[in-house]
């Protein structure tokens, strides 16, 4: 590889945290104008390596060369100034500002007097949006944009900083097929201009479409770098997890379906939900499919009392219950794995133990005092059973991988003897090995008679894990299928046409 083709070289990068070696002499090189895919299980070291590249973490050993010169950056702003940008899975845009203000946040054009030159800011932003063939205006407020459009704004922001390399972390999470195609088209445009992309994804089927080369990390070490044409999905999985895993085998197990556990009648919320009716039985998994904005998340948030409803009834084991808050839902036996686990599910500054027991502290309380020994004992049992990787129970959950955070939420509802578990995008941002474990845990709950509602934007998950499937569009139920009658074409038809 010549110096002309090499844009980035990371040599023997090592990073240690207390009690763990996060990266062990990892090498990574990226060519100009290529999409270099970075894959590995949660905790493999992908995020740590990228945080070192962008200056969020300092390396303990190794060297980084960028555009032929050794790179030393102390923070992400310095990295951005050098032409290295990071587009995170959760967007970092400021919602109450508009597109132009977000693109140039912290880098606003000024008059010689020091006052903001708004005219130039909008003019610059408009040119970048046109270059990317984006149809929204620089004056559009971020809250009015969908997830896909917000990702495009992040890319426009990176382009405005004259980025030579863009790091995209799970860029297609929660996007529709059409939105993914639009993103891939944009990435192809970037490649043609010589911009390189480091593409991190757990959706292995995507990488053969968009990637040029792929590097696999496992347990903080580099396993291999290959041309995309030289690998297939199964070989990547073997390299990622160090064992044979076929994610298509993790299907809904045969479980005896019991009596009705949950019934929803006439649930409505103005602008979001229109006369929703359905039931779920004990041991059954009901899959809810639909495009982003179809009303799936709004429905389950209404059921758990996170959002108020205008009318409708909820019955648990044929008895009507009034759910006005998440506390009411917990008391009624409903558990909830939210789509955004970091913001809506976890108390990030609390420990693993405290997050596991959070919904059922009274179980460990005697005469007004919490029994720490009982709390620790039961939390440790679930930590072992669910294979939660953490240094200790008192470790803050914010430092754990997405897969381990999701297991902690599942442990929370296992410990409360939940009757109904609602899972909104339960495998979002989770690697193939941990995804299989999550499916296994959901199957275990179904075997115990728990009624499960599962939302997923990834149709193979819905088709393999569900006993019945319900399709939503614009806040309405447009179709219902028994598992054997459903396929991707039928679901997409009712999700798009209605």
Q: Tell me the count of domains.
A: 2
Helix fraction? 25-40%
Tell me the strand order in the biggest sheet.
6-7-8-3-9-10
Percentage beta strand? 25-35%
Structural class: alpha/beta
The CATH architecture assignment of the largest domain turns out to be 3-Layer(aba) Sandwich
- CATH level-four homologous superfamily name of the largest domain: P-loop containing nucleotide triphosphate hydrolases
Report the end-to-end length measured between terminal Cα atoms.
Answer: 52 Å
Largest sheet: 6 strands, mixed
Please name the CATH topology of the largest domain: Rossmann fold
Which residues form runs of ≥5 with pLDDT under 50? none
Q: What is the rounded Rg?
A: 24 Å
Total number of helices: 17
Shape: globular
Q: What's the multimeric state? A: single chain
Question: Would you count the extended β strands for me?
Answer: 22
The first-level CATH class name of the largest domain: Alpha Beta
């Amino acid at each position: 590889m010549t110096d002309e083709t090499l844009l980035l070289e990371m040599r023997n990068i090592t990073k240690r945290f207390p009690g763990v070696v996060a990266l062990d002499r990892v090498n990574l090189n990226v060519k100009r104008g290529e999409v270099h895919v970075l894959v590995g299980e949660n905790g493999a070291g992908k995020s740590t390596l990228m945080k070192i590249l962008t200056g969020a973490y300092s390396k303990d050993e190794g060297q980084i060369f960028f555009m032929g010169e050794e790179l030393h950056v102390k923070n992400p702003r310095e990295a951005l100034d050098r032409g290295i940008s990071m587009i995170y899975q959760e967007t970092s845009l400021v919602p109450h500002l508009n597109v132009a203000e977000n693109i140039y946040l912290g880098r606003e054009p000024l008059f010689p007097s020091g006052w903001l030159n708004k005219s130039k800011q909008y003019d610059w932003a408009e040119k970048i949006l046109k270059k990317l063939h984006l149809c929204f205006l620089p004056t559009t407020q971020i809250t009015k944009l969908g997830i896909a459009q917000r990702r495009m704004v992040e890319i426009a922001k990176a382009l405005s900083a004259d980025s030579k390399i863009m790091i995209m972390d799970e860029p297609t999470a929660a996007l529709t097929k059409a939105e993914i195609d639009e993103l891939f088209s944009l990435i192809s445009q970037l490649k043609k201009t010589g911009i390189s992309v480091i593409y991190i994804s757990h959706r292995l089927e995507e990488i053969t479409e968009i990637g040029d080369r792929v590097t696999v990390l496992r347990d903080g070490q580099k396993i291999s770098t290959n041309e995309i044409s030289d690998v297939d999905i199964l070989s990547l999985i073997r390299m990622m997890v160090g064992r044979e895993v076929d994610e298509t085998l993790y299907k809904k197990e045969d479980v005896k379906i019991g009596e009705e556990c949950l019934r929803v009648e006439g649930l409505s919320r103005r602008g979001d939900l229109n006369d929703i009716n359905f039931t779920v039985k004990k041991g059954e998994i009901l899959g809810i499919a639909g495009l982003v904005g179809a009303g799936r998340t709004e429905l389950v948030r209404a059921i758990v009392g996170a959002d108020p409803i205008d009318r409708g009834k909820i019955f648990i084991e044929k008895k009507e219950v009034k759910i006005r808050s998440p506390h009411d839902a917990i008391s009624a036996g409903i558990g909830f794995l939210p789509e955004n686990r970091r913001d809506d599910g976890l108390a990030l500054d609390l420990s693993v133990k405290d997050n596991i027991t959070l919904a059922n502290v009274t179980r460990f309380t005697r005469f007004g005092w919490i029994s720490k020994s009982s709390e620790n004992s039961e939390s440790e049992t679930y930590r072992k059973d669910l294979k939660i990787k953490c240094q200790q129970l008192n470790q803050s959950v914010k430092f754990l991988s997405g897969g381990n955070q999701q297991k902690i939420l599942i442990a929370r509802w296992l410990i409360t003897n939940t009757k109904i578990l609602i899972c909104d995008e339960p495998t979002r941002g989770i690697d193939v090995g941990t995804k299989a474990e999550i499916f296994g845990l959901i199957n275990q709950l179904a075997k115990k008679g728990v009624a499960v509602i599962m939302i997923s934007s990834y149709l193979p998950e819905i088709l393999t894990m569900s006993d019945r499937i319900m399709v939503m569009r614009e806040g309405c139920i447009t179709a219902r299928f028994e598992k054997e009658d459903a396929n991707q074409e039928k679901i997409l038809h009712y999700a798009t046409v209605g």
